[in-house]
Amino acid sequence: MIIADRKPLEEIQEMVENCEKILLLGCKGCVTVCNVGGLKEVQVLASTLRIARKKEGHPLDVEEKVLERQCDPEYVEQLRDSYDQYDAVLSMACGVGPQFLSEAYPDQRFFPAVNTKFMGGAVQHGIWEERCAGCGTCVIHFYDGMCPIARCSKSLLHGPCGGSADGKCEVSRDIECIWDKIVRKKMEQNRLEDLRILRAAKDWRTARDGGPRRSIREELVK
Amino acid sequence: MDYVRKTLEQIGMEPDRVQMFNLSSAMGPRFAEIATEMTEKTRELGPSPLSANKC
Amino acid sequence: MSDRFEPQILAFCCKYCAYAAGDLAGSMRLNYPPNVKVVQVPCSGRVDIIHLLRVIEDGADAVYVAG
Ligand code: SF4
Ligand code: SF4
Question: Is the dihedral of CA A178, A180, A186, A192 positive or negative?
């Protein structure tokens, strides 16, 4: 799923500084699962903003709502009757949400309440890690299910680099060297020879480097 | 609990307005003590900037 | 009478420990300040961040959980 972090309170407060009435809009998709933009987080942020503004003697009316998903026009459409009742809408979805919203309602302002970070999952309660960089041409079958594109700091197709030490990446001791893991697993499974195979240079045009991407499923397009 | 206290601090309110206590059903006196303690402490902090209490 | 500040305090008390302790305090005729209003919850684990924030938002001077 998509992993995000809540923006610092100060930054959010600044965005809505001049507003008197806002809608705080959560999403039941990824951001609910990674505990950053679901019902609960909407309630907590809404209450916090109200307390802060009430304290300053400049109350802020914060309405709370959570959409099924903000990345689907049919759910975004559910705001049609109410979107213009606010000075701004603060979205707690990933970066897709506020964009779909402003496309649907060009005369309203939509602000992001979270920093959208990566695609990954929870490795333990409260800790999420990156696993996929959406490169558009998956190659993890060559690497025993471990992705060197997303998980090696240099996205090496042949590794590890000379900076790998004690299973850690030279970029930071907090990053594990995925190439160390790939090599170890190949050794365990007696498939080290796989790593002698030369992999063709990756065609990065299927990744972000080829410009913004789209997916067309002919059979679904009317 | 820590999260709420931290949040209050961020918006410039005293985190001590929110507390947590552990006690068992047999601790009647401690219950009264905590209530007194909280009242005293809050008196020191003064009224909440949000409260309507003007006395 | 003094006109000292009388704070409004809310206490979330677990039914089985703190609330029972409160009952005991009552039957022992112990005094505690009338500033504290008690809300019984089935378990202090039920109390969430949002409950505490809402109490502050609604103007309480302090709030605590006892369990
Ligand atoms: S190879 Fe590409 S698509 Fe596959 S997991 Fe890595 S980044 Fe994602
Ligand atoms: S140390 Fe490992 S993870 Fe870091 S750049 Fe080198 S090969 Fe990649």
Answer: positive
pLDDT in tens, B8-22: 999 999 999 999 999
Residue A207 Cβ < 6 Å to ligand 1: no
- Report CB contact under 8 Å: B50, A54: yes
CA distance C67 to C64: 10
ipTM over 0.90: no
Distance CA A25, CA A62 (A): 10
pLDDT at res. B53: 52
| Beta carbons of C52 and B42 less than 8 Å apart | no
Gap between the Cα atoms of C25 and C9, Å rounded: 18
Our mutation pick for probing the ligand 1 site, out of A132, A141, A178, A204, counting the most ligand atoms within 8 A of Cβ, is: A132
User: Is the CB of residue A140 below 6 angstroms from any atom belonging to ligand 1?
Assistant: yes
Nearest-neighbour CA in chain A from B22: distance (Å)? 25
Task: Compute the nearest-CA separation of B33 from chain C (Å).
Answer: 7
pLDDT in tens, A136-163: 999 999 999 999 999 999 999 999 999 9
In chain B, residues 14-53 whose CB comes closer than 8 Å to chain A: 49-50
Element (H, E) at A112: strand A110-112
CA A161 to CA A172: how far, in whole Å? 14
Q: Is the pTM of this model over 0.90?
A: yes
Compute the distance between CA of residue A105 and CA of residue A110 in angstroms, rounded to an integer: 9
CB-ligand 2 contact for A156 (6 Å cutoff)? yes
CA triple A65-A71-A73, angle to 5 deg: 85
Domains of chain A: 2-118 (3.40.50.2300), 133-210 (no CATH)
